[in-house]
Design a protein that fits this description.
Belongs to the class-III pyridoxal-phosphate-dependent aminotransferase family. This is Aspartate aminotransferase family protein. Keywords: Aminotransferase, Pyridoxal phosphate, Transferase. It is a single chain. The protein is built from 18 helices and 16 strands. By secondary structure, it is an alpha/beta fold. The strands form 3 sheets. A 7-stranded mixed β-sheet has the order 4-10-9-8-7-5-6, with helices on both faces. Strands 11, 12, 13, 15 and 16 form a 5-stranded antiparallel β-sheet that branches. The chain has a 4-stranded mixed β-sheet with strand order 1-2-3-14. The relative contact order is 0.14. The structure holds pyridoxal-5'-phosphate.
């Protein structure tokens, strides 16, 4: 059991010793962090006894919901049996073999191989090294450049932050590293005002073609994108976008990579987001929903082309002490099995996802400053705008979104502001009643806000 302390004590010790990620530590320490003590289903409780509805599944990761005792039991048993061994140097263990076998079953046909990491960022960095290694093996070592997108998010490591298109991250630390370039995000609402979404999808894909031609197809290793940009504001591309991207990548012999760290493991109603958008990547990166956040683990899924190249090529000099960690692997396996066997992913497609999408639009479309109300499965957003008729955004992008998010938080609802996009991605096990509670709280806050 954790030591019992008062909220003030937790806060004081946190401020004294803990540097928080993505936080302005000075102002956080002045306010004091909210202390989350326990969780169950879609709810969190803080140290003052408030019950909070978690509309973000943590950081888009607790797909199966909080408080699953069966996963805790799996972790305990695995820890007692084999707490650690590595998968370097010609060894393996049952937990990682069983997980890999299950992942090959739930992945689309052809994805027979996975490489394990501990996080989404590590999956992305692994993918970058893998792609470059693949082209070396193929005798095209000049194919090194990766194309990412502005406002894409691919993690916080130097590779992931470079490939991501968050300028506030690039500004700290002289990023991107060489060999990484970016194209505009496929945000129809802002960039496609005079076009249908379908026309805009083709145009946005052609920006990738333009970039390939600018760099030189013989130098471009891969194009990388999230099927739906998550942290960039739940940017859902028009239906024409991904098929056109796929055509372009094939035409110029550029590898196509989907970053499924958010979209993977049921978030869109399919196991993986690329299935929802009808394209086949060469590689896709995952983490988060793989273990529903119960333990850190990520996986890079490798399709036949790259797998054959890597296997024929010999050593891939890359890996982590905890690649395929037995306890994380055992918990991930139990989590993925539950997502499948309890029909959780199927329900996102057939029942709870469509319900959320219908109600999300009904509730939020009525507000004067809310527009582009959108979503798929259990990932959704709307944008706070100054003028719906002209699609004018507020000046000082992000200011109003942050205010709105803080009001939700005060009312015990967690939704996130990505700039002025307000986004939600609750646990996939959320019930219809819980959706109604989430929507009613958010609507009440918005009325106060408008
Ligand atoms: N890729 C995507 C699409 C993500 O959304 C994230 C995290 O939000 C990452 C990579 C990085 O994952 P992690 O924070 O586990 O390193």
């Amino acid at each position: 059991m954790m030591t019992q302390r008062s909220t003030e004590q937790w806060r004081a010790l946190d401020a004294a010793h803990h540097l928080h990620p993505f936080s302005d530590t000075k102002s956080l320490n002045e306010q004091g962090a909210r202390v989350i003590t326990h969780a169950d289903g879609v709810y969190l409780w803080d140290s003052e006894g408030n019950k909070i509805i978690d509309g973000m599944a943590g950081l888009w990761c607790v797909n199966i919901g909080y408080g699953r005792k069966d996963l805790a039991e799996v972790a305990k048993n695995q820890m007692e049996e084999l707490a650690y061994y590595n998968t370097f140097f010609k060894t393996t263990h049952p937990a990682v073999v069983e997980l890999s076998t299950l992942l090959a079953e739930v992945a689309p046909e052809g994805f027979e191989h996975v490489f394990y990491t501990n996080s989404g960022s590590e999956s992305v960095d692994t993918m970058i090294r893998m792609v470059r290694c693949y082209w070396d093996i193929k005798g095209q070592p000049q194919k090194k450049t990766l194309i990412g997108r502005w406002n894409g998010y691919h993690g916080s490591t130097i590779g992931g932050a470079s490939l991501g298109g968050m300028s506030y991250m690039h500004e700290q630390g002289d990023l991107p590293i060489p060999g990484i370039v970016h194209v505009e995000q496929p945000w129809w609402y802002k960039h496609g005002k005079d076009m249908t979404p379908e026309e805009f999808g083709i145009q946005a894909a052609r920006w990738v073609e333009d970039k390939i031609l600018e760099v030189g197809p013989d130098k471009v290793a891969a194009f990388v994108g999230e099927p739906i940009q998550g942290a960039g504001g739940v940017i859902i591309p028009p239906s024409t976008y991904w098929p056109e991207i796929e055509r372009i990548c094939r035409k110029y012999d550029v590898l196509l990579v989907a970053d499924e760290v958010i979209c993977g493991f049921g978030r869109t109603g399919e196991w993986f987001g690329h299935e929802r958008f009808g394209f086949t990547p060469d590689i896709f990166t995952t983490a988060k929903g793989l273990s529903s956040g119960y333990l850190p683990i990520g996986a890079v899924f490798v399709g036949p082309r790259v797998a054959e190249g890597l296997i024929a090529g010999g050593d891939f000099n890359h890996g982590f002490t905890y690649s395929g960690h037995p306890v994380a692997a055992a918990v991930a396996r139990a989590n993925v099995a539950a997502l499948r066997d309890e029909g959780i992913v199927a329900a996102v497609k057939e029942d709870i996802g469509p319900y959320m999408q219908k109600r999300w639009r009904e509730v939020f479309s009525q507000f004067e400053h809310v527009d582009d109300v959108r979503g798929i499965g259990l990932i959704q957003a709307f944008t706070l705008v100054k003028n719906k008729a002209t699609r004018e955004l507020f000046p000082n992008w992000g200011e109003i979104g942050t205010l709105c998010r803080d009001i939700f938080f005060k009312h015990n609802l967690i939704m996130r502001a990505c700039g002025d996009h307000i986004v939600a991605a609750p646990p996939l096990v959320i019930s219809k009643d819980e959706i109604e509670q989430l929507l009613a709280t958010a609507a009440e806050c918005l009325r106060e806000f408008e």
